[in-house]
Each structure stands twice: as C-alpha cells, then as structure tokens.
Amino acid sequence: MIDRPEGKLALGIPKGSLQDSTLDLFERAGYNIHISSRSYFPTIDDDRITVIMFRAQEMSRYVEDGVLDVGLTGYDWVRENGSDVVEVAELIYAKQKLRPVRWVLAVPNESPVRTVEDLRGGIIATELVNVTRQYFAEKGVDVKIEFSWGATEVKARLIDGIVDVTETGSSLRANDLRIVDTLMTSSTRLIANHAAMAIDWKRRLIENIALLLQGAIDARQKVGLKMNVPRQKLDAVTEILPAEKSPTISSLHDPDWVALEVIVEEKIERELVPRLKRAGATGIITYPLNKVIP
C-alpha cells in the first residue's frame, strides 16, 4: 500500500496521453499541480489533497481497492477492469479535442473483410482484451484475441484485424486502415472509492473537484463578451444575441449608454462580433473563461 498522510484525499492523475490535458484542466479549475522529473507524486496547492500518478489503464483498480480515494480514467478502462467504483462525473475531454474517443475494429483498406462475421477464425490484436472478447462473443464470432503492447496499427497487416482507440481518426488514415465497426465510445470519468464517498468531508471535496473540473471544461467552449451600447440601439443589439442568453445590462455614467455583458459559444464569436458592431455596440471586448458554473 502507498504510504500517504492521514486526513488527506488521495487523488489519482493519469500518466501518459491524458497527463498534459488533465493538468491543464486542473489548472483551469483552480488547482496548480507540479510534477518533478520522474516523480509519481506531484505536489498540489491544496493541503487537503495528495496526488499520485498511475496509468489510466490501472487507475480504476486502485480506486476500487482503496489505494486511491478518487481518480480520473477512461470509461473504457473501468469496463475493461470490471471495477466496482462510483462514477462521480463524466468529463468529456481527451488528449486533443473536447470529444469522446472510440474503440474501433479496423482492417487494412485492401482487406477483403467487410463485416464482423468475415473475421471468424481470425486473430485480433488489442489492448482492450476483455471488452473485445465480450464484443465478439455477443456477435457469436469465434476469434483469437491477442494483447497488444502498443503500436497496434502496425500489426493490422500482420494479422486479421485490430481493435484500437481513435480520437480523430488521423492515425488510422495514416496507416491506410478502414473501420469495420465501433465497439464502444468512451470519455474520461471522475471515479471514487465507495468507502471514500461514505465519508462526509471526502465526498464534499470530491464533489467540489467534480464541479470545478466540469466548469473548466464548459468554459473551454465559451467566451465572455463586454460592450457599450447606446440605449436607443439596445433592442437591436440584444436581438442579435443567442435567444437562450440573457445578458447583464448595467447603467453607465452617461444615461444614454449601457454596458452589456454576456457569455456565448466560442464558435459563434467571430460571426457575432461584427454584427454587434454594425448594430451599434462599441468598445467590444472578448475574453477567455476559466470556469463556467451553471
């Protein structure tokens, strides 16, 4: 067992492909985590928490066993390990985009395989062995499942097919592979140990972390807008804003002007700002957000 101080929440951070995006997410949420060279015990600026790093593939096992109170890992690895844990929150982020990842069955483009049944009697390489075995069993297709230690795409031309994870599909395309089927969609989950969730202060702290992390994720896709608007043009400006958004409107020293502030989706900002300017808004300021708490 890991020797950790009593009275602290043991938090597991995934080491590997999710590491950088997870640290960035915690920073946006208000937690500064520092990792020294080759250390598996980062420091955090919250004396109630101790941080330990594990690979995402094994995180759920250590949470279930109570080595960790709470940790972040993919839903795919919770399923792969069959772990009995509390799912506190779904946090949709990955190493590149704010989107779930997919585990797909893929073959080379030149392969004659068109359906799952075409792989009967074949060999499949994957890191997600248990989920893949269950998938083929449910399909009634008998195959041999081999564990892959990485670089799974390379093996697609040495055996009959692979089951691999993809976020954007770029690696599959680069290796000239074709998707036959999707086994599952997975996103990052904040998971907790059952016993830890039964302790009031730990549960509250875990729920606080979940709230702040989700707020940081929501903020990534939004920006704040500030502007000054003549009162006589206020209706024209507010009509341009998304219907579901209710702006904050404040009076200025000049009674003929107001200040307007609103949060909008980042993807519409570049279309919205020129329209607001033409409608009469001035002094338009856009700014990034760290957290958006509903």
Describe the structure.
By secondary structure, the protein is of the alpha/beta class. It folds into three domains: 9-98 and 188-219, Periplasmic binding protein-like II (D-Maltodextrin-Binding Protein, domain 2, 3-Layer(aba) Sandwich); 101-186, Periplasmic binding protein-like II (D-Maltodextrin-Binding Protein, domain 2); 222-288, Alpha-Beta Plaits, CATH 3.30.70.120. The protein is 31% helix and 32% strand. The chain contains nine helices and 16 strands. It has helices at 19-29, 56-65, 75-81, 129-139, 170-174, 194-197, 200-220, 234-240, 266-279; strands at 9-15, 33-34, 43-44, 49-55, 70-74, 86-91, 101-108, 123-126, 144-147, 161-166, 177-186, 188-192, 222-230, 248-251, 257-265, 282-288. It has a five-stranded mixed β-sheet, sandwiched between helices. A five-stranded mixed β-sheet has the order 9-8-10-7-11. Strands 14-15-13-16 form a four-stranded antiparallel β-sheet. A hairpin with an 8-residue loop joins β2 and β3. α1 (19-29) crosses α7 and α2 crosses α3 (75-81). The two termini are 39 Å apart. The model has no long low-confidence stretch (mean pLDDT 92).
